[in-house]
Amino acid sequence: MKIDTSKFRVKEGDKVRLKDWSTDVKPLYGSEEDYQEVLAKHIDSMAELQNLLYAHDRYALLLIFQAMDAAGKDSAIKHVMSGVNPQGCQVFSFKKPSAEELDHDFLWRTTRCLPERGRIGIFNRSYYEEVLVVRVHPEILQGQLLPKEAAEDKDIWEHRYRSIRDLEKHLRWNGTRIVKFFLHVSKEEQAKRFLARLDDPAKNWKFSKFDMGERALWKEYQEAYEACVSATSTDEAPWYIVPADDKHNARLIISQVVLDTLKDLDMSYPEPSCTADEVAEIRKALSG
Ligand code: ATP
Ligand code: MG
What we know:
Blueprint: H1 32-56, E1 60-67, H2 73-80, E2 89-93, H3 99-102, H4 108-111, E3 120-124, H5 133-136, H6 138-142, H7 148-151, H8 156-173, E4 176-184, H9 187-199, H10 210-216, H11 218-232, E5 239-243, H12 247-263, H13 276-287
Parallel strand pairs: 1-3, 1-4, 2-3, 4-5
Helix pairs in contact: 1-12, 2-12
């Protein structure tokens, strides 16, 4: 059964209010076994299409993951991409920028990591941090070495959204398909997951006391996400708001979207480089 992902997609021009988007939906699977089976099917089909993407070598796919802490970005990436050939897939995680990165425009560091034709690229956080964490923390913007006219520009976020839209449009017309996922968790679910990280010695390392500071800015982050997703969800590079309180559901939705996006590409295996006569001769040589 195909999962209808259209209701999670933000249409171009829509004004998003996150309160209207659930973090929890009715399970899309009947049982644990059912979940495993559907995910496995998605992964198999994805692996086949990735092979074709690689052979066809005209398109690239970029998957962008953004979320509040503990929303399950890492585990979604791990589970959904578990079947793809590592040679055709690149994952980049973007943390606080280095001094070298701050010496460049805000799209520089991620542009260097864009997937080549034939590959799937995954951004675990991305240039979108530049209109999220940077918007929520004005002191980060102050530290960005921007010229006065940019640092004091009252429309700086609108300008950044425009730069992002333009970049994504440009990439689309040059063969890179972009899909963006916002893993939408509730504040209550985040608390549960933080507690689980504290309780389990194998998960302790994932908890940082700084995460509590960001949690305290929940409302500010939700507003920044709303503005960002509303301004940058386009027909060419849509955002999906994935209900993420149930990790199984989130993974099924993400894998379905990835699969549909790959299926939508007009791809074929390249013609063999030998003529039929040459093949016959090679066959003879090999079996002789
Ligand atoms: P987890 O969900 O496991 O905590 P994570 O993606 O939050 O993973 P961390 O190392 O905890 O990884 O955090 C990375 C931090 O880097 C985030 O707080 C993020 O907001 C910050 N960051 C990413 N890009 C930028 C940027 N351009 N400017 C400032 N901070 C950034
Ligand atoms: Mg973190």
